[in-house]
Structure to design on (168 residues):
């Protein structure tokens, strides 16, 4: 669900830049008038036409093709519609959509593992034994550590909470 406020913010930026497509006339000169005209033509901000308009104006649209969208036919539940149609993905408790580049990185790691065994921890583009190094400096400043060497980044929140509770 997209909030009306964030939708309004995106629309306002583009309206103020006087960006129009074929569904809007060039008569209105301010963003409020432009939105009012669009809503009269489209009836509501939840219409497909309004969503398509906003998609065309989305400054992040160039990143969409970098992700793999599940299709209606690939998800393990009953759906209606074209099985090849991409799903609208709005799961907040998720890793999100899978970046297509992840396949390349995983294949590279698996190849390194097969070729180098355990030594792949210290070789290649992703040296897994040193994976915490890039984030140590900022983590040290966040937690108030006096030196980077006193910070260790490990596991995820759930695992760390379980480890903490097991100590008591």
């Amino acid at each position: 669900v997209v909030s009306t406020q964030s939708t309004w913010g995106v629309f306002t930026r583009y309206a103020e830049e006087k960006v129009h497509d074929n569904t809007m006339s060039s008569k209105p000169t301010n963003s409020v008038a432009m939105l009012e005209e669009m809503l009269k033509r489209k009836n509501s901000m939840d219409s497909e036409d309004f969503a398509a308009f906003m998609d065309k104006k989305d400054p992040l649209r160039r990143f969409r093709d970098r992700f793999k969208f599940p299709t209606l036919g690939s998800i393990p539940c009953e759906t209606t519609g074209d099985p090849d149609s991409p799903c609208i993905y709005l799961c907040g408790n998720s890793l999100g959509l899978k970046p297509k580049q992840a396949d390349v990185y995983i294949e590279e790691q698996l190849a390194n593992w097969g070729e180098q065994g355990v030594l792949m921890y210290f070789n290649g583009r992703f040296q897994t034994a040193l994976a915490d190094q890039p984030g140590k400096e900022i983590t040290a400043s966040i937690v108030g550590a006096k030196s980077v060497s006193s910070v260790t980044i490990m596991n995820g929140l759930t695992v760390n909470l379980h480890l903490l509770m097991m100590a008591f």
Observations:
- The chain has a mean pLDDT of 78.
- DSSP finds six helices and two strands in the chain.
- The CA atoms of residues 80 and 150 lie 54 Å apart.
